[in-house]
Each structure stands twice: as structure tokens, then as C-alpha cells.
Amino acid sequence: MAKSLEFGAFMEKFTLQPSPSLQQLPLSGLTFAVKDIFDIEGYVTGFGNPDWARTHSAATTTAPAVMDLLKGGATCLGKTVMDEMAYCMYGVNKHYGTPTNPCAPDRVPGGSSSGSAVAVGAMLVDFSLGTDTGASVRVPASYCGILGFRPSLGAISTVGVVPMSQSFDTVGWFARDPVILNRVGRVLLHLPDVDPIKPNQIIIAEDCFHLSSVPSDRTAQILVKSIRKLFGGQCVKHVILGDYVKDKVPSLQHFMDKENEDQEDNIPSLAALSSAMRLLQRYEFKNNHAEWVTKVNPDFGPGISERIWDAIKVTGENVDVCHSVRTELCAALTDLLGDHGILALPTTPGEPPKVQANPSTLDLFFSKPFSLLSIAGVSGFCQVSIPLGMYHNVPVAISLAAKHGSDAFLLNLVETLYDTLKEQIELLTE
To answer: Where is the Amidase domain (predicted)?
Structure first.
């Protein structure tokens, strides 16, 4: 198949057949693709950069997450393009090209799991594997108009996955269909089938939706109408999340920026949260990769190069405070949501940037979404990005987050909600 027909999604095509079985397996007949950050026996894990591929040998084992999918009956069709060293959210790669966003070809697909999202969005596979450290599943899912799931931290093995930042690294996945999203999740998370549980509260993060350039009647209100129809209106609640986090996470004071406190397009406590996350991420990235980067001096694309060398220079100052922030935020959000509560917020606050945007402009553009995306990242909670159709010719999405370990509950809820959300979108756009 010509590369144009494959939307530039694949690094390498090959077929790995599922493990033979006499019984009907949960993923039988389904195909998937794998981000080029996962080890597959006999193939070099490229990590988005040709110098990395050149200086590393072929993997001698296959990552357990990939093995689980093959044992579950799915067929792997190859490895997908990713941003260099997973250190970007745009989906741009100067060496291997930018996979084409199937929903909006003039927009970036989002990264760093760009090719995996595009392969699903373009219907080249039924589902795909990515990783989500800062938001590398949630952002491309949002930009490509598909479902993307970031599991609870530590819920899925990251053995055989090149590390980026272990405090935040998760194995995530994409699908177009909520039933497949759920089925894949059960295999990866080793979960039995359980009946859906009705949420006891859906908390709308009002201030987060105010950050969004998309009107709330195309996001939050669609969710609220769907919840009322399915579960009744009594479980819908509202919170000013920034105020709650500021009050309940005292260690964030170390990262509060006085200049940001009065900006309308900013939630100061969440901006501080993203600063803490970025510091710890840089520090761990340095510990993982500084030796290789300084020895090889790889050829990096614009924007990525500056980001990686900044990380290499970071010191351990305030890293202990970052860990305090993680502990406090997890406790605060667990109290807020309880066992069967859901937090609703925009996946990203704006539309995907244009493909040819300047890297420095993109960095500025991504400062606001990172505030929203760091909530699940720092807390270790699970989060799903759900597409809500198109608005002004670009995809729109909403995110639902649940407390750590509530992955089965959240996956079931998405499956229950999905058709009603689609009905509400159709009513609005008729």
C-alpha cells in the first residue's frame, strides 16, 4: 500500500499472528499497531530517532503488553511513527514525517503516539498501543477524533517499553469503538468482565471548561444531557477545580508563579501543577537518557532538541517537593471523587495547531493544555478522551477521569455513555 494511503502512520509493516488457541479469544479477528517505543523480538525499537535506532540492537524479547494482545487473539500489523524520544505532543517528526491527521489533514495529529492514533483514525487497524507520560495518548486521540485511554499509573506493565519518566509513564491505547476499547482494556489490565456500575457523581470542572475555545454547549452540556438521560440529574455536580487543588495541595506553593495569578486564560494552581510535573519529568528523563544523549549527540528536530538539552541540564532541586505534590493531589482527588465519581474536563482547551506552525509557537500553545493534562498525570488517575464530533471542521473531545484503580469502571462507563453522547451531538448539529 502506498505511504499516502497509509497516512504516514507506519514505521515498519509486518504481521505477528496471535497465539494459537482452541477457544474463542476476546480479541479474535482484530488488528492492531504498536508505537515504536515497545520492544518486539527481532526488531530494533527506534524511539522516534534514527540515531537511537542506529546505536541499539534488535530486541530479544517482546514487551508483555504486546504479548498480552497477541495471546488475546489480536494480529499485529506493524510499528508506528512517534515523536523523537517521546518528548513532544505535536506529532511532528523531522526524520520520518508527520503522520496525516485523518480528521483534519491540515492539522497536526498530536503526539507522541502520533502514528498509533492515525492508524486507528484512518481505519488501518482496529486499535493500537501508545504510551502516555505527559499526554501522548490523550492529545492524539482528541486531535484525531478517536477514543484514547490512559490507565492508572502502574496498572499495565511498562517492561519492554523505553522509559521516558517512570513517575508518569503508562501504556495506553486507541480505538474507534467503545466496545473494542473496553475489550482491549480488559486484556491489558487482566480484568474479568464485570457489570457496569452507575456513577454516583459526575463532577464538571467549570473553570477548566472556561479555558476552552469550544463553547460548553458542544462539550460539557452534551455530557450533562447524556448523564441526565441515562442516570438522572442528581449525580451532576460542579467544582472550581483550580480553587479545590490550590486549597488541598499545599506543596504547590513552591511552583506558583505570581505573574500567572491574574491571567484570565490560566488556572494558577493547575499551571503550578504542570510546572511540578515537567520538572520531575525532565529530571527522570535526564536520569534515563543523559548518558546516551551526551555521548551520541543525536540529530534532533527543532523544538525537540531544545527541550531535550534543557532536560539534560536540570538539577534535582525541588524534586522531593514534586513527589509531595503527587501524594497530596492523589489524596485530594480521591476525596473529591470517591469510589464511583467521575471528573469531567476538556481533553485540550483548543483546536489542533496547523501542521506548518512554528515550533516556538507550538510550545506556547501547549502550555495551557498541559495544565489540564497534568491532573491525571500527577495524580496517577485513569482518564479517557472521548470524541464529540467536529466543530468548525476540527475534532472536539471531552475527558473523563476516575480515581486510581477504577479503570474497569471508567471503561464500562464509556461504553454505556457513547451512543447517548452521539445522539446528543446529532440533535445539536441537525
So the answer is: 23-177
